Amino acid sequence: MMNEPLKNRFLNYEVPPHPSAWKTIAEELLQHDDLPGISKKMFNYEAPPPIDTWKKIKEALLAEQETAASPAVIAKSFAVHKLVAAACVTGMLVIGTFYISNYKNDKFNAGKLSETTERNKDAAPPPDSSKTGSTSVEETEQNEVAMTTVENSLKTNVGLNDRDMELQTTQVSHSLSTAVYDPEIIISTKPIRDLSGEIIQETDILDNGGQYISITSPNGQQTKISSKFLHMLLFINEDSDIDEMEGYFDKDLLESLAWRSTFQQWRNEIISTSFVPSSTNFMDILELKDLITKDQ
Amino acid sequence: MNIISNQNISEFDLIKGCLNGDFRMQEELYKRFSAKMFAVCLRYSNNNETAQDLLQDGFIKIFKNLHRFRGEGSFEGWIRRIFVNTSIEHYRKKSNLFSTSEREEVLAEDSSLNALDKLAEKDIIKLVQELSPGYRTVFNLYAIEGYSHKEIGNMLNISEGTSKSQLARAKGILKKMVEKFLDEKRKSFIRK
User: Does B34 touch chain A (CB under 8 A)?
Assistant: First the structure.
């Protein structure tokens, strides 16, 4: 008995019920016996409903569906309002970005142009400010039209959303602005030429604040000297401004022609002899003095 | 007029179609169960118009709650339960299901109803419809649907004892009604 598994012990375990249990069950059975066959008879009984009942049920179901669908319509219209509001905000941001970008570029280019103008004041003809201003306004208008066209094209053909539109239009705006406000800057500096018309100076070498000029000596070596000698050198070299220079010299010296002849003589002497002026030592002027006075 | 349904459609397809909102399937389900359920509604109501309203409400409930049917037990049983509950709810909302007069009513007579078995279903329904809502509900639930007094007590929110006494009174009234009905029938037969 002790070795029998617990499972089997409980499986076969019996407990006698209370003696009144059967009495209760018997009473219940008797009560049901009062209604013999009625349950079976009535349970499966079928009574055809009126013909229009299904029509009414269908109408009620459709009405239910419509009622259930109406909040969705409200939600949809709400979503449309949200989309419109979002589109307006995006549009304002794009336009704002566009104008800010234009304003910055205007300022930048205005500064750039004024700087260039000042730098090339002497060398290049001054820019026509009125013309530049009108061109800028025209180009801004063209730019806006181009922006609108590009925006519409993107919306229509590519079907971009507002976020993409913003990115695209910002990029287009930037590229258009760059294209319009970066004109080619031409600095025209008057070159210095020798007698044969060859350019003997690089323009950037002369850009030293106007204090010095560079000259090339007969041996080809370049030397910087004070710009005070410029007019004299031009005069000696019989440059194109010789008439103006002559008037200047004549007014002060009244001997321009005589001196020109003298200078020409000295030049011929220098060229015909082995005299070479030094770029580093000013004492060669004594040698020049001996050379030009030896015939006197 | 009998409603003929297409028995080739399986119950599974019927449920699936109704869940997808297919009106043809919903109509098919209606055709298949409407006659049985209308009989249920007639038993729980006091006239045809109310029974028709109950039938409509019951089917709408079924179509709206069909996703809750888990397939445990019979589909017809689930539908029947909905119609029974719809009927109970209808009278519970309308008025107190068990009025004071009904509770205080005492039936001294024996309430054996062997005579009911001799009547046709249509006549039984007519007699049952004449009972007050409380008696009619308990009688239907106990004598026809097969619920125990404990279950009826839970369903109607009354005690088990109240359910028993309501049934006893319902049976007493029905017995008188059956006797009267049979007597009138016998008299009309003799006249003919």
Answer: yes
Closest approach of chain A CAs to the CA of B150, in angstroms?
12
Distance between CA atoms of residues B128 and A30, nearest Å: 22
- Full DSSP string of B52-113: HHHHHHHHHHHHHHGGG--S-S-HHHHHHHHHHHHHHHHHHHHS-SS-HHHHH----S----
> Cα dist. A164→A87, A151, A154, A169 in Å?
12, 11, 9, 8
State the residue for tokens 């700087």.
A115
Largest alpha-carbon pair distance within chain B?
59
Cα(B186)–Cα(B87) distance, integer angstroms: 34
CA distances, A285 to each of A275, A292, A293 (Å) = 10, 10, 12
Half-sphere exposure of A51 (CA within 13 A, CB side): 1
Q: Which of A36, A56, A65 sits opposite B56 (nearest CB)?
A: A56
Q: Using CA atoms, how far apart are residues A239 and A196, in angstroms rounded to an integer?
A: 11
A108 touches chain B (CB under 8 A): no
CB contact under 8 A, B112 and A45: no
| In the block, residue with structure tokens 């078995």 | B117
Check A50 against B56: CB less than 8 A apart: no
Burial class (CB in 10 A: 0-12, 13-18, 19+), B45: buried
Nearest CA in chain A to B27: A54
Interatomic CA distance for residues A252 and A216, integer angstroms: 28
In chain A, which ranges are continuous DSSP H helix? 6-11, 21-33, 38-43, 53-119, 129-153, 162-181, 203-206, 230-236, 242-252, 256-272, 284-293
d(CA B163, CA B156): 9
pLDDT per residue as tens digits for the range B76-119: 999 999 999 999 998 887 766 665 455 444 444 444 567 777 78
Query: What's the pTM?
Result: 0.47
Q: In chain B, what residues touch A25 (CB-CB under 8 Å)?
A: none
Is the Cβ–Cβ distance between B75 and B11 less than 8 Å?
Answer: yes
Q: Is the pLDDT of residue A142 over 70?
A: no
pLDDT single digits (tens) A192-228 = 666 777 766 555 555 556 677 777 766 677 777 887 8
By the 8 A CB rule, do B42 and B87 touch?
no
First to last CA, chain A: 163
Are B55 and A47 a contacting pair at CB < 8 A? no
The whole-angstrom separation of Cα B143 and Cα B136 is: 10
